[in-house]
Write a structure and sequence with these properties.
Blueprint: E1 9-13, H1 17-27, E2 32-37, H2 40-50, E3 54-58, H3 66-75, E4 82-86, H4 91-100, E5 104-107, H5 111-123, E6 128-129
Parallel strand pairs: 1-2, 1-3, 3-4, 4-5, 5-6
Helix pairs in contact: 2-3
Length: about 140
């Protein structure tokens, strides 16, 4: 009997439909996207229900922002790795995301360059932070 290798399971949380399609297209090169949500509460529910290997999470989301989602997941003792993805190009957001318990951070403007690498790094148990898009 042939054994099929299982791809890492990922939940995506992004409010913008077009950006969500782009993220999904990149992530599906390495992972199985098990759910896509468009708000913070939905992200928490999806992680608790699906038990993914990773969540890729935008910062500005309706109901709860991405940093609040990470804080809630960690308060629930959920250890699902979190990769933050955002258009905010400010290091204060990186610091806040990492302090909340995120495992990685990618700027949307350079997600074509960094997202797949970040997914692999975070799934391997390492931290990944994009260099600033201007660098």
């Amino acid at each position: 009997m042939e054994t099929k290798l299982q791809r890492p399971r990922v939940v995506l949380a992004e409010q913008n439909e077009q950006i969500l399609r782009n993220i999904s297209s990149i992530v599906q090169q390495h992972c199985e996207v098990v759910e896509e949500v468009r708000d913070g509460e939905g992200a928490i529910e999806a992680v608790l229900r699906k038990q993914p290997d990773l969540i890729v999470l935008d910062i500005p989301l309706p109901t709860l922002d991405g940093i609040q989602v990470v804080r809630r997941l960690r308060a629930l003792r959920n250890t699902c790795p979190v990769l933050m993805l955002t258009g905010f190009e400010d290091h204060d957001y990186i610091d806040a995301a990492i302090a909340a318990g995120a495992n990685g951070f990618v700027f949307k403007r350079i997600m074509g360059r960094d997202l797949l690498l970040a997914v692999r790094e975070v799934l391997a148990g390492r931290t990944f932070v994009s260099t600033h898009p201007g660098n």
